[in-house]
């Protein structure tokens, strides 16, 4: 994964193929950002991310692309991600995911937590059962080298059976929570 100088980023798999990207990833203040769109390697929009302007915990919401881009106030969130608390360690975040309640009304419940320091590219993503589903770490040159590349290039390992698009959306939001 590599962040570009344009504040966009490109994600390559272990074969060197482009699998995800974000273009026009500006560093404007949260209250000026409309949305960030995660695309696949071919440019197809996958998930739309929007900051929640009035939020004490720096919350971001994820929506289906069609609903986000064509509605000013989208109704159905895929997930909502926030810092645990401004008073606690700022590197921890929580992801609330959409689920159906007893009366079939969707609601958001804790689904994932991020622990560690994203700025140092040393963090893990855990599901609600406490199982690790992904890990972010600094990238080195070669497998046995101790030469670290810059923070704009890092490794992301996603465990089998987990939705890679969701993890990429988490990474985008973590970068914005800094």
**What's the overall average pLDDT, rounded?**
78
Shape: globular
pLDDT < 50 stretches? 1-6
Strand order of the largest sheet: 1-2-3-4-5-6-7-8-9-10-11-12
**Helix-strand makeup class:** mainly beta
Topology of this protein?
Blueprint: E1 2-3, E2 9-12, E3 18-22, E4 36-40, E5 45-51, E6 60-64, H1 65-70, E7 77-83, E8 93-100, E9 106-117, E10 122-127, E11 132-138, E12 154-158, H2 164-176
Antiparallel strand pairs: 1-2, 2-3, 3-4, 4-5, 5-6, 6-7, 7-8, 8-9, 9-10, 10-11, 11-12
Keyword list:
178 residues, mainly beta, twelve-stranded antiparallel sheet, 41% strand, globular
Question: Please, could you describe this protein's structure?
Answer:
The chain has 178 residues and is mostly beta strands. The chain has one domain (45-176). 11% of the residues lie in helices and 41% in strands. The protein has a 12-stranded antiparallel beta sheet. The longest helix has 13 residues, at 164-176. The protein starts with a strand and ends with a helix. Residues 1-6 have low confidence and may be disordered.
Quick summary:
The chain has 178 residues and is mainly β. It contains two helices and twelve strands. It has one domain (45-176).
């Amino acid at each position: 994964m590599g962040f570009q100088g344009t504040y966009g980023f490109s994600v390559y798999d272990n074969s060197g193929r482009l699998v995800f990207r974000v273009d026009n990833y500006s560093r404007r203040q949260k209250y000026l950002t409309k949305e960030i769109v995660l695309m696949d390697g071919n440019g197809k929009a996958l998930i739309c991310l929007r900051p929640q302007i009035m939020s004490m915990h720096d919350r971001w919401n994820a929506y289906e692309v069609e609903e986000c881009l064509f509605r000013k106030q989208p109704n159905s969130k895929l997930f909502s991600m926030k810092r645990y608390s401004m008073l606690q360690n700022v590197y921890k975040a929580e992801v609330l995911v959409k689920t159906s309640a007893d009366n079939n009304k969707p609601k958001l419940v804790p689904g994932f937590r991020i622990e560690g320091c994203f700025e140092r590219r040393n963090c893990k993503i855990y599901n609600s059962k406490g199982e690790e589903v992904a890990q972010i770490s600094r990238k080195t040159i070669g497998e046995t080298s101790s030469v670290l590349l810059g923070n704009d290039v890092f490794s992301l390992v996603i465990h089998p059976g987990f939705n890679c698009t969701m993890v990429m959306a988490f990474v985008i939001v973590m970068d914005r929570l800094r």
